[in-house]
């Protein structure tokens, strides 16, 4: 294993992205995101992602210096045209208007269009909870997942994220794939040659499979939670696809032309302002949310973000450890 | 079994509610909802619910003639104070302002406060899709469900519903409990003395149980989908509880004082207007949603509302059939 301090990890990520040809705005936005993933122990969305990011640029599937355009679509809708760049920069430039609209009107939506995406939506949720807002985000990906009762890839892994601000505590945040697991987890199993647990995917004829390559290349992943997870995944296809004038996962796969690049699609973010919902009573009611968190933890259950925050507390002190093979792959990309 | 035409079922429901002492506005709103449940084959939200509705009134846990107040809370927030009445009337009186705000601003929320609730959120989703709006709704219930990793009731069954309007077709709608099953299903198992399938609940010490009475009275239900379902259920507690200044499921249980009345709490509804998101391109993009539905059905999978619509097509012709014992119970309530 190779140990890197967080500033070293950021420097390495930045050097790789700069060498690959990304504009400085993207270098910073992407490096911040992948280092946040590694810092929080989310290896599938950490430094490893740089391999796919650079491959996506080399395949001509992302614009290295896109200048996202913010459009004031309606009193409670911001639209950001990412112009083919990675989503992070589009999110960052649209965030101030989204927050302004949510605080003025109580609820607002931001549609990010024509972006290339590599998830870690909890990073965006933290940016919104830092502003005191409650937030929900979701996006399609590419067609990897069969609907319940079906047999072929149609839905994406379609992450759904939620953030709730807490006074004096780290926010309550979850961010999960509506697939049984994130595609990155299956890719890590393939890299390490491990068999998949049951329930993660089906083979080319729709039968259960424990073979990562079979599931990724010929079969389909499954949703979590049976028909309910499948319904949620369909909802995400609709509200972060046609509703915002952007691609479904299947359409995104067609655009990919078999390159296996990071997916090109849209993203929907909804922000709600507790202050506008509650007025003068806001502190009293947010305190009742704290009682809910206390009750969850009081019976030995975990808050969804707890493991990430524990990893963060550790890596902020000790830095991150990555596999030597990954470190060598990254050094090779630094030029 | 006793067969009733839908008008007969509505008449019977109306007579029972009128005899119980509900104002005519509630008689019509509640009868419409329970008959819609029975019509669509959702027996757990059908005529059977009248028993609990009347019991709740007799227990003094609902206001029979409440006059809901609509409050223009913020440019994109409607609040309706149900004043202790059933939710249906509050929804109906708030709907026009919610739709107006969604169509003006692109997205809007309606918070229903201080209502008594017996679910069937898909009825509300249909009212919104009929207006061309996309909609999401959720609410806490009472503390029946343990968070993943916990052992005691904390979350409600917390339904989540979604509606998507379709031109020339019945809307795409789902409405599911974030518990492994609806509490009503477990109650029906108790009524009929059937063992529960695995995964529905735990006993008083947190171990798996197949005994409906043990799960309902001493143990806890489980969420669907493990920690992801548990996270969703927590989100619903937060956004349809403290965010709207209303009760969590645990707080609602305290208010109940052991009466096992229908739950008293709030509800959050979010409406999004495709026209404001998409402008002139709206038809083109909604057509792409139709392609998604075709692809789902093309691989043999079912749309979530399909079974309800099939039941509806049949009962509109043939009426509904209910168990004789239930029919006798209902006749006894008609006075």
Features:
335 residues; homodimer; 46% helix; Hypothetical Oxidoreductase Yiak, Chain: A, domain 1; 17% strand; alpha+beta; 7-stranded mixed sheet; 13 helices; two-stranded antiparallel ribbon
What's the structural blueprint in terms of helices and strands?
The structure is a homodimer of 335-residue chains.
Chain A: E1 2-4, H1 6-20, H2 24-39, H3 49-58, E2 69-74, E3 77-81, H4 87-105, E4 107-116, H5 121-129, E5 134-138, E6 159-164, E7 172-177, H6 183-192, E8 201-202, H7 212-217, E9 220-221, H8 226-239, H9 249-256, E10 264-272, H10 274-278, H11 282-298, H12 306-318, E11 320-322, H13 324-334
Parallel strand pairs in A: 3-4
Antiparallel strand pairs in A: 1-11, 2-3, 4-10, 5-6, 5-10, 6-7, 8-9
Helix pairs in contact in A: 1-2, 1-3, 1-13
Give a description of the structure:
The structure is a homodimer of 335-residue chains. Chain A is α+β, with helices and mostly antiparallel strands and 335 residues long. Chain A has a domain of 83 residues: Hypothetical Oxidoreductase Yiak, Chain: A, domain 1. Chain A contains 13 helices and eleven strands. In chain A, the strands form three sheets. The first copy, chain A, has a seven-stranded mixed β-sheet, with helices on both faces. In chain A, strand 2 and strand 3 form a beta hairpin. In chain A, helix 1 packs across helix 13. The radius of gyration of chain A is 20 Å and the shape is globular. Chain A starts with a strand and ends with a helix. The model of chain A has no long low-confidence stretch (mean pLDDT 94). At the A-B interface, strand 4, strand 7, helix 8, helix 10 and helix 11 of A face strand 4, strand 7, helix 8, helix 10 and helix 11 of B.
